[in-house]
Amino acid sequence: MAVLIFVGAGSYYLKQFASIRYKFRQGKKLTPEEAEKLGIKTVDADAVCEEMLKEIEKKDLDDWQNIRGPRPWEDSKTMQAQQREKSAIR
Fold it and tell me: What is the DSSP secondary-structure string of 25-58?
């Protein structure tokens, strides 16, 4: 008897939760004009991507040094000191 009540109540509440999910999924999206009226600044994604690409192209990506981090059983202070000594020698 308890199982039947559990199944019946479970299906009822599952239906309620699903209806909430579908109701909010059908929400209206803001247009750029509506966003400006609300005071939200919009940014052109293509322009931002192009700016970032130009910054990356300016950097020298071929000249870098691989620095190994300390292992959990190693002391980070001594590892940092050793790496500083190695980089000073080069």
Answer: HTPPPPPHHHHHHTT-----HHHHHHHHHHHHHH
The pLDDT tens digits for 21-36 are: 777 777 778 788 888 8
Q: Which two tokens stand for residue 30?
A: 């803001």
Does residue 42 contact residue 35 with C-beta atoms inside 8 Å?
Answer: yes
First-to-last alpha carbon distance for the chain, in angstroms, is 80
SS3 at position 17: helix
Task: Give residue 29's identity as a one-letter amino acid code.
Answer: K
Which candidate, 68, 60, 74, 71, places its Cα nearest to that of 87? 68
